[in-house]
Amino acid sequence: MLKIAFDDIYVHPLPEGHRFPMEKYELIPQQLLREGVITPAQLFAPAPLEEAIILLTHDTEYWRKLRQQTLSEREQRRIGFQQSPALTQREITICRGTIDCALHALQHGVALNVAGGTHHAYADRGEGFCLLNDFAIAANYLLQQKLARRILIIDLDVHQGNGTAALFANNERVFTFSMHGANNYPFHKERSDWDIPLKDGTDNSAYLQLLENALPALTDHARPDMAFYLSGVDILETDKFGKLKVTQAGCLQRDEMVFAHLRKHDIPCTVAMGGGYSAGIRDIVNAHCNTFKAAAAIY
């Protein structure tokens, strides 16, 4: 059964000016339920993450600042949110959801987090609306618990997963792959194990051909027994910041391509939604819902 982590506290920590793109976290499960793609039994609300697991990935001093609400103004500006206890609570709930999804995926093939994909967070700081790095936390947890030996992170958000790349720069058990806009945030890129920078205006044909060529090489080289897939929909031509020309159909083909390849090789897959900033909320929600539909169809 497809399992979906649903962050039911998403509205509480959001400052004015940031609610619109976050509205999707409530609308996605509502639409999936309305269309009959899922049932209520497939949704779960995670508990907050334990401190010991956070500290497998993040520095003690940085976590202390998040817990005690002592981030400096500069640190808050880098993140993009004003600090609040509710914001920290939301972040640790998202991270627990990604771990729970990974545990389910190990048993049943796939699981999806309605939120997550906080790939700009480093060990010692947050950036780009990301406080804690949920994929890194989940990957380190699986490795520490000996539930996985080798992990592949497929990051197809339009923004490079700079925090993730830095966190695993010297870890041979985690292979990081990022296909992202060359001229997009972050403007200082870290070095993933494999980066494919995309030109502005990259369309369906070019995008999907690059991905189709990359997937076999990725699994051959990384030899993973778990994959994490960041399925950002900011690659859409309607996205305000993405600079690419991928259509809704092309975005769906991307998801189908990733899931079909991982399914063919019996690699469990944990999914997080990542970014999406189209002017119309319908475009964002439909594209994210297509990711769930693709997972349900292939798994």
From TrEMBL:
- Where would I find the Histone deacetylase domain in this sequence? 18-288
Q: What molecular function terms (GO) are annotated for this protein?
A: histone deacetylase activity; hydrolase activity
Q: Which UniProt keywords apply?
A: Hydrolase
Q: Which residues form a coiled coil?
A: none
Family annotation (InterPro entries): HDAC_classIV, HDACs, His_deacetylse_dom, His_deacetylse_dom_sf, Ureohydrolase_dom_sf
Answer whether the UniProt record assigns the keyword Ion transport to this protein: no
Instruction: Note the SUPFAM superfamilies from the entry.
Output: Arginase/deacetylase
UniProt record, GO biological process: epigenetic regulation of gene expression
Give a yes or no for keyword Hydrolase in this entry.
Answer: yes
Domain of life of the source: Bacteria
Q: Which PANTHER family match?
A: HISTONE DEACETYLASE 12, HISTONE DEACETYLASE HDAC1-RELATED
UniProt similarity note: Belongs to the histone deacetylase family.
In its UniProt entry, what is this protein called?
Acetoin utilization deacetylase AcuC-like enzyme
Task: State the organism of origin.
Answer: Chitinophaga japonensis
